[in-house]
Amino acid sequence: MLLNIFLLLLGYYIIKTVRQAEILSGRDLELAIAGWEYTLAGPELKAVTRGVQAILLVAFFVPAYGWLASRTRRLTLIVGVTLFFIANIEFFCLLAGMKVPNLGVYFYVWVGIFNLSIVAQFWSYASDIYSDEDGRRLFPVIAIGATLGAPLGSRIAAVLFDRGMSAFAMLHISAAALLASLVLFLLVEHREHRAGRTEHVETLNRSNGFSLLMQSPYLRLIALLLVLLNLVNTTGEYILDVFVTENAEAAALAAGMLPGTEEWSGFMGRWIGRFYGNFFTAVNLIALGLQVLVVRRLVKVAGIIGVIVALPVVALGAYGVVASGVGLAVLQIAKVAENAVDYSIMNTGRQMLWLPAGREEKYQAKQAADTFFVRLGDLFHSVLIIAGTAVGFVYTTYAWINIALVLLWLLVCASLFREIRRLPNDRAVVPAGIG
């Protein structure tokens, strides 16, 4: 399972680096809403496409996934979804060769659905095959695979950008990683069958993931936590994107490039691809250190509440620094710190919160939470950026908004702490913490 999530994250971080280069270096998009006209450059265009992802998730993907999950066995579900995404990757490579206009926008929307659903599916499976006790012991270890695969994937992408490889050509590596991951799922399921652990392979009840979430105060708070987490994180990413795009444009002008030309877009794509490849590498190397050295100890000492509170505390400090007015170097350090804690400590805590859930909740409610409610944060982010662009917000304004959102996030953590205390003993997650 550790090797499996390693392969998934390696493939995803190649895709993610390509996504950043494509969406931020493409041409501007004209948008008219209720009489207002906007010209969306890279960072603003990226923000709006996140809202589109949320709409597609609630309208199509989550209902379709729930329908499929209720009618197939878990292995059939995993094989079908993984092969579907592999086919998607190869289709994008084909479209890139045909030079389809605005392909970066379509690709960005797809990646937002792909990355959440494929990772949510992995952790749904993990929480299904492990008992609560085994999950508490093994999830921090398994998550090391994610923090190993992510920096390697982003580093591979950065090196390939440096060597001039076209962005979409890199995606074949991601497709191969997904295929290898699928083989590992088959091996794990075979071992489960040989060990006689087959009592949980029946198909799920035909429940709706959204209704399952709404029926439980505990799960509703998890969903709200995910909305706030992603709203804060994506707003911080927008601030970083603005700085990176401005620096890339300055570098292109210094190199004598003419705006709007193919040479300009190519130079911008390579510059941004290298930056984000190195940025993601730094984030994930620090996340690896936290995962190996800190997470298990934090779980033992502070319990689940200590794990889920760590990120908002770090984010509060990071955006406090950004709100004071800083340059790209300091902003980069703040975002590296926030993302590293998110990808290690917070990611492990998020998965452990689902250990006491039932099977329908793990596959259907979790898929709805980890896809739609995460992207709902993106939808709110899109509205915030469109409104902020219209009235002329500067980056420090967004930092102060994030500080207010983090304070709300901490209140949600406190409410979640109370719900954890109320869970029956046979459904307890991990010790809630000291005190």
Q: Which regions are unreliable across 5 or more consecutive residues at pLDDT < 50?
A: 28-34, 428-435
Biggest sheet: strand arrangement:
1-2
User: Could you name the CATH homologous superfamily?
Assistant: MFS general substrate transporter like domains
CATH architecture: Up-down Bundle
- Count of strand segments: 2
Multimeric status of the protein: single chain
What is the H-and-E element order?
HEEHHHHHHHHHHH
Helix content: over 70%
Query: Given the structure, what is the number of helices?
Result: 12
Number of domains: 1
Shape: globular
Tell me the CATH topology. Answer: Growth Hormone, Chain: A
- Under CATH at level 1, the class stands as Mainly Alpha
Secondary-structure topology with pairs:
Elements: H1 2-25, E1 29-33, E2 36-40, H2 42-69, H3 74-97, H4 103-129, H5 132-162, H6 171-194, H7 209-215, H8 217-254, H9 262-323, H10 328-352, H11 359-391, H12 395-422
Antiparallel strand pairs: 1-2
Quick description:
This protein has helices spanning 2-25, 42-69, 74-97, 103-129, 132-162, 171-194, 209-215, 217-254, 262-323, 328-352, 359-391, 395-422; strands spanning 29-33, 36-40. It has 435 residues and is an all-alpha fold. Strands 1-2 form a two-stranded antiparallel sheet.
